[in-house]
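I have been asked to look over a protein record a colleague put together. What it holds is a sequence and that sequence's fold in token form. Please read both lines and tell me whether the tokens look consistent with the sequence. I do not need a full report, just your reasoning and any doubts. This is what I was given:
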Amino acid sequence: MGDMLTTIKAFIVKELCVDCILGMDFINEYKMIINTEERTVSIRDGPKRTTLQFDVNKHCINYPARLINHIRIPPKRTVSVPVSVALSSAQVLFRPSFKLQQRSPILMLNSSLNIHRHTSFITLHNPTNEVRLLPKGIILGTTTIPTLSFKKDPDIDYSFAQKNICNLIQPITNSAQKDKVKRVLDKHVKLFDTTKPTIVIN
């Protein structure tokens, strides 16, 4: 890091959502100090301490979600299908493929997915009166790893927006589903701040 050579025992995995994850062993070993306000990281090796500026990666990486098996969806039915994602384990946001939805009547929704051993499940609905088939390997959509932001938008009343979100999800009785919906809505929190009027210009 910087001009300092650091070493640590590490686990190597086949798939990871980032290049490297530094844990508490590394942080304690080198007395690391993370300053999110100034966006710096300082690290000590003996009497020497090095301070580095860090960048927040604003470019989201999308991972396609592919059907694992050939799928047959009966008329007017909703099914949960397994998909493969090039991530070993993660909580991701799923966005349906626009091209697929243009050429197929199958309905999919934006959702939050739990990936375990490169596998997750996506809900599909067939609103037609005919059986619909989807081939193995077809991309149903893309998944994105949510990123944390250290700065809040000063133009958003977060407390009011959260109140509106909580009111919306209150009728959901299943706590797991409620948490999933809330995570998705939190990504679009600005839409739920109704303290400021929206002006439409023709």
Notes: The first helix runs from residue 24 to 29. The longest strand covers residues 77-84. Residues 62-144 form a domain with the Deoxyuridine 5'-Triphosphate Nucleotidohydrolase; Chain A fold (CATH 2.70.40.10).
